[in-house]
DNA sequence: CTCAGTGTTCAGTG
DNA sequence: TCACTGAACACTGA
């Protein structure tokens, strides 16, 4: 599921459901991988009886601001998501924790693949892993000069740099490919080989693509039809853009990368 | 049965 | 020490 836009949608949903409510009960499963460095029991007792004041996000990380610390922090991995419901039978199949609120609403984190993480942190925004994140395209849209300077120092393929969360937090596989396509830059170019204008273009596209993706709030079919997004998924030979340009799939920066040789130089 | 996948981490290398 | 790379992680669904 989640790159920054989906995580931001999840943050908004959680804020709507949880803000101002008291957590009356916490259910957990036994999972020492997802509960990173804490026992589910300690997690539950830190949340039980607490009031939720707000929901924070940076990059792909989320946390609840409670009336008392420590606070819970979440990462969705590849397949995590939040779900709200009212009856216990509606629990999602792969639920890892469930909050019961004072208005009888239930709120769960589900994650089939178990690459997500559940943490307890005193000050999430200011301690690892969240404080190690780089530029956040929604909150740091004024940091263009730093983005350009840092990118043009990197020796790795620009695709790999975009995926590096300590460089740009929240950019994932399809967004990296989308901004490279829209910027007309080949994914295997090294960061240090980009011109200032190219790096600047990439910066603007990262902001624009992520803002647009947040605006459609999960209705991905509302992206402009010119976006690579709509045409990149079928890895079958013969995939083409809206203009009929051939889409190539290859591994770059350790991930399947979709790009368009006719457009990206 | 095999393999890819909207993500991160960590050991190994130069 | 640093930047970078590739494998590992865990599990579903095509």
Mind explaining what this structure looks like?
The protein is of the alpha+beta class and about 260 residues long. The protein folds into two domains: about 5-130, MutM-like, N-terminal (N-terminal domain of MutM-like DNA repair proteins), CATH 3.20.190.10; about 145-260, Helicase, Ruva Protein, domain 3. Helices cover about 25% and strands about 20% of the residues. It contains six helices and ten strands, in the order αβαβββββββααααββ. A four-stranded antiparallel beta sheet has the order 1-6-7-5, covered by helices on one side. Strands 2-3-4-8 form a four-stranded antiparallel beta sheet. Helix 1 (about 5-20) runs parallel beside helix 6, helix 3 packs across helix 6 (about 195-215) and helix 5 (about 175-180) packs across helix 6 (about 195-215). The longest helix is centred in the last third of the chain and has 21 residues, at about 195-215. The structure holds a DNA duplex (14 and 14 nucleotides).
